[in-house]
From TrEMBL:
PANTHER family: GLUCANASE B, PTHR38165. Residues 1-24 are annotated as: Disordered. Residues 1-22 have a biased composition (Low complexity). Residues 44-412 form the GH64 domain. This is GH64 domain-containing protein.
C-alpha cells in the first residue's frame, strides 16, 4: 500500500518525517517482503548499490536528492551529500525549521548527462528531482526531515517543479516504484539491471506527460462538471503539477465531496441480492460477501458504505486497517474496486484490467494518469498495486534480489517502452 502524505499543509514547525510506507503488493501485508518473490531472486548481500541519475530534461539546472532511513545505522535519518557518495546523518537541531548542515543537492549537469550515486541499505527511500531551483529541506528536532508539500501554499517549494520515486534497498532486494499517489509532476522512468534475473524497465511519461494529464482533467471537467480541473496547479500560466483527488480535497474539502454517492448506492443494491467474491491473495483465501442491512458483510469482516473521501484516500472510514487480518486483506481489493469502478461489472475481485475505469463515475485522475504513461504503469492511488493473480502490474514497480544498477531518469526526453542502453557519461 502507498500512504498519502499526512504532513502536507502543515507549517514547518509541525512537519515531521515519518517512515514512508512503500508501495508493496497488498498480499504482503501478511508476510515479510522477502517472501514475496521466488528463490531465483536471492539477494547478493551487497551493502551498497549504484544509482544512475540521468538528466533527460531540456534544462542544465536539474537537482537530485536521496533521502530515507539508514537500515545499517539504527534507521537514522539519511540524506546523500552533493558528491553523490557521502552519507549525511543530521543531528537533532534545537529549533524547528532548521537548515541542513550539509549540501545535499546533486547537480545532474547538462541534458543527457548521468551522475552515478552510491547508497547504503535504505528504508522508506525517496529519490527527488527538481528543475530550475533546488529543493528546500528543513530539519525539526528528532531529527525529523521537513519534506516539500504540494498542499501548503506557504511551502518554500510551492512554485518549484519537483517529483520523486520511492524505493527500499535492504539485504533481500531493491524495490522501487513511480509514485503518482499525491500528484504528477516531472516524468520519471526506472530501469533495474540485475546479476542474473534480467533487466526491468518502467517507462514513465513522455516529456509532455503532465500537459497531457492536465488536458485530460480539463476535458473530464467539461464532460461532467465535477471540478477535475481544480486538480491542476499552475505557475505563471504553465502547468506545474496535477494533484490527486485525495490531495485536491485537502486543498478544497468540498471538491468531489459526494462524487461516488450514487455509485456506492448501486453497489449496495446489487450485492443485496447476490454475493461478491474477493481473493485476498493471502492467508484468508477467497471470501464471499453480501450486503446485510446497511453493511457489506464477509462473515468476520463488515464494511459500512464508504464516502467519496474514504474511496480516494483508501484509508479512512471502512477502509481504516486494524487488528483483523482478514479485514486488512479485503480492504486493498475493495478500495481498488471502487477506485477502478469494477463493482458493477464483475462479481469476483480483483477484476480484470479490461474492466477498469469504464463507469462514468470513477477515479478519472487515475484513468488519465495511466493513459499518459507509455506502458500504462504508475501508482495513481494508494492501492494501485492490486491486481489479479498473474495479472499485469499497474503500479510501475521494479524489484530484484540481485540488483547491480538502478537507473532513474528524469524528464521524459528519451521515454520509451523499450529498455534503454546503460551507456552513460559522468560529470
Amino acid at each position: 500500500m502507498a500512504t498519502n502524505s499526512q504532513q502536507q499543509q502543515q507549517p514547518a514547525e509541525q512537519q515531521q518525517q515519518q517512515p514512508q510506507a512503500q508501495h508493496v503488493n497488498p498480499a504482503a501485508l501478511q508476510e515479510p517482503m522477502n517472501q514475496m518473490y521466488t528463490t531465483s531472486q536471492a539477494a547478493t548481500g551487497g551493502s551498497t548499490l549504484s544509482v544512475a541519475l540521468q538528466n533527460q530534461t531540456t534544462s542544465s539546472t536539474v537537482y537530485a536528492y536521496i533521502t530515507g532511513q539508514a537500515m545499517d545505522n539504527n534507521n537514522a535519518l539519511f540524506l546523500l551529500s552533493a558528491d553523490a557518495k557521502t552519507p549525511y546523518y543530521p543531528t537533532s537541531p534545537s529549533a524547528t525549521g532548521s537548515q541542513l548542515a550539509q549540501n545535499c543537492a546533486i547537480e545532474l549537469g547538462a541534458p543527457g548527462n548521468t551522475v552515478t550515486a552510491t547508497i547504503p541499505h535504505i528504508a522508506g527511500g525517496r529519490i527527488w528531482f527538481s528543475i530550475g531551483s533546488p529543493i528546500t529541506f528543513l530539519l525539526n528536532p528528532g531529527p525529523a526531515l521537513v519534506e516539500p508539500s504540494v498542499t501548503n501554499p506557504s511551502d518554500p517549494n510551492a512554485k518549484i517543479s519537483w517529483s520523486f520515486a520511492e524505493f527500499t534497498f535492504n539485504t533481500d532486494q531493491l524495490y522501487a516504484n513511480i509514485s503518482y499517489v499525491d500528484f504528477v509532476g516531472i516524468p520519471i522512468a526506472l530501469t533495474l539491471t540485475t546479476t542474473s534475473s534480467g533487466t526491468q524497465h518502467v517507462s514513465g511519461m513522455p516529456a509532455n506527460g503532465l500537459d497531457t494529464i492536465c488536458s485530460g482533467l480539463q476535458a473530464q471537467n467539461a464532460s461532467d462538471g465535477q471540478g477535475w480541473n481544480q486538480l491542476i496547479v499552475q505557475n505563471n500560466g504553465q502547468n506545474l503539477r496535477a494533484l490527486s483527488p485525495n490531495q485536491g480535497m485537502v486543498m478544497n474539502p468540498s471538491l468531489l465531496a459526494n462524487y461516488y454517492d450514487s455509485y456506492v448506492s448501486q453497489v449496495w443494491t446489487k450485492f443485496s441480492s447476490q454475493q461478491m467474491s474477493i481473493d485476498t491473495q493471502a492467508a484468508a483465501g477467497t471470501v464471499s460477501g453480501e450486503v446485510s442491512g446497511s453493511a457489506l458483510s464477509f462473515g468476520g469482516s463488515t464494511f459500512a458504505q464508504p464516502s467519496t473521501h474514504d474511496i480516494f484516500t483508501c484509508s479512512t472510514g471502512p477502509f481504516a486497517t486494524g487488528s483483523n487480518a482478514e479485514t486488512n486483506a479485503i480492504i486493498p481489493r475493495l478500495s481498488a474496486a471502487f477506485n477502478r469502478s469494477t463493482l458493477l461489472v464483475s462479481d469476483t475481485f480483483p477484476a480484470a484490467e479490461n474492466l477498469y475505469y469504464q463507469n462514468p463515475i470513477t477515479n478519472h485522475y487515475a484513468r488519465i494518469v495511466h493513459a499518459a504513461n507509455l506502458d500504462g504503469r504508475g501508482y495513481a492511488f494508494p492501492y494501485d498495486d492490486v491486481q489479479p493473480t498473474n495479472g499485469q502490474d499497474q503500479s510501475g514497480e521494479v524489484h530484484a534480489g540481485d540488483p547491480v544498477l538502478f537507473t532513474v531518469t528524469v524528464g521524459g526526453a528519451n521515454a520509451s517502452t523499450s529498455t534503454p542502453s546503460n551507456d552513460r557519461k559522468e560529470l
